[in-house]
Amino acid sequence: MHPFSGGRSDRSPGRPAAAGKRSRWRKELKEWALTLGVAVAASLLIQNYAVAQTVVRNVSMQDTLVAGQRLIEDKLSYRFVEPKRGDIVIINGPESELRLVKRVVAVAGDTIEIKDGRLVLNGIPQQEPYAKGRTLPLGMELPYTVPEGHVFVMGDNREHSMDSREFGPVALSSLEGRAVFRLWPLSQFGALD
Fold first, then answer.
1. Phi and psi (nearest 5°) for 174?
2. What is the pLDDT of residues 33-85, one digit of tens each?
3. Sign of the torsion angle spanned by Cα atoms 129, 135, 178, 58
4. Region (Disordered) spans which residues (predicted)?
5. Among this protein's residues, is 60 annotated catalytic?
């Protein structure tokens, strides 16, 4: 009988299996790390460019929104469509030192007047069931026409809102996004009007 044909080997039977397990473990670890890295990068991209969570910090939108409520913000749609009257927007630009949540009440080309405590747009008194209090001019010269590339915003709590009546129209480039959904409190969970 040949000395090497007896099935005996100089190799330890456990060594190749252990090396194979280590190799599979490393491969799986690399795959998990890659998957986790892609997930983190995707979530950061989505939060920066598509959808984010925002918190209401003041009373200017009462009774529609109150301080402490958490909202979902759509950051993507204004890259493709213009804002429209009634949109609740998040403003992050030179118009204010703070990020603001306000409602678009007029778009480029609209002429604004305020009569008897009501907003008049292009000669038509507006029905604004969301507005709280009287709408006052706060020193702005009327009538006022919104320039191209801008929107005019007001808080729904008209007597307690710093808005376009004070700081002027908001550039479209200052609109961070549109508030579309209320997450918190759970009792008011749902889409925004």
1. -90, -5
2. 777 766 666 565 555 554 577 777 777 888 888 888 888 888 888 889 999 99
3. negative
4. 1-22
5. yes
